[in-house]
Specification:
By secondary structure, the protein is α/β, with parallel strands linked by helices. It has helices at residues 42-50, 73-76, 96-106, 112-122, 139-151, 169-186, 197-203, 223-226, 232-240; strands at 2-13, 16-27, 31-35, 56-62, 65-66, 79-82, 157-161, 189-193, 206-211, 214-220.
């Protein structure tokens, strides 16, 4: 079964169409990237899947279940999103414990203490962080908390919107390694938005290149090593990155 299917997806903000005719199929367990320049519609697709951009037409399904336009608690147990800014996505007046416990309370799930401790450990934080507030954490620690929150309901699909771009370069690799480890251990599927081709090379199996709201090419991530792209726009992005994004000059 496919984890994510998008068919003829159009997304608008008011009278402006920002995504048009998108078709993507992401396999279970796959890590798939949406890449392109700012404003190409990448993050808008994630928001539509998550229910944050309701003005869309076409088909969205996650793990075989069609995505409606209304609030769907069941969807939250299948799919969660991690945002770009870990400070903006965490309530400044809520402790880590409260942030992680809330999804369990909303869904009426018990064993909260044990689950909070388990998820903190899964993202590399010990119990000392449980009752801290966002301003008491580093950027990398805040993003670890955001990832833990997304995992509290044990979803199998994760939407990752530039999950490391707001972090210091020294911390980015730690978070990417954590995400790779979690995908392996928990059997997760990732749909990741990024403009960073080395991140795609490290994290993903395939990539869709977007330009002005449309997908111009879908290619294996291995194309980043040999340059085997066919679309001129994709070729220009590849050239602008210096060719092989992993190359050490």
């Amino acid at each position: 079964m496919s984890a994510i299917i998008l068919k003829n997806l159009d997304i608008s903000y008011g009278h402006t169409k920002v995504v048009e005719g998108v078709n993507i199929e992401v396999a279970e367990g796959e890590s798939f990237a949406l890449v392109g320049e700012s404003g190409s519609g990448k993050s808008t697709i994630l928001k539509a899947i998550a229910g944050l951009a309701p003005d869309w037409n076409g088909e969205i399904s996650v793990l075989g279940q069609p995505r409606g336009r209304t609030v769907d608690q069941g969807f939250a147990t299948r799919c969660q999103m991690v945002f770009q800014d870990p400070y903006g996505s965490l309530h400044p007046r809520k402790s880590v414990d409260t942030v992680l416990s809330e999804p369990l309370k909303i869904h009426g799930l018990g064993n909260r203490d044990a689950r909070v401790i388990e998820m903190l450990a899964a993202v590399g934080l010990d119990q000392r962080f449980r009752f801290r507030y966002p301003h008491q954490l580093s950027g990398g620690q805040r993003q670890r908390v955001a990832i833990a929150r997304a995992l509290m309901l044990e979803p199998k699909v994760m939407l990752l919107d530039e999950p490391t771009s707001a972090l210091d370069v020294s911390v980015q690799a730690e978070i990417l390694n954590l995400l790779k480890k979690l995908r392996r251990e928990q059997g997760l599927t990732y749909l990741m938005v990024t403009h960073n081709l080395p991140v795609v090379s490290f994290m993903c199996d395939r990539m869709a290149v977007m330009n002005k709201g449309r997908i111009v090419e879908i290619a294996p991530a291995t194309a980043l090593h040999d340059g085997s792209f066919t679309d001129p726009y994709t070729q220009s992005l590849y050239a602008a990155s210096g060719g092989n994004p992993d190359r050490k000059d």
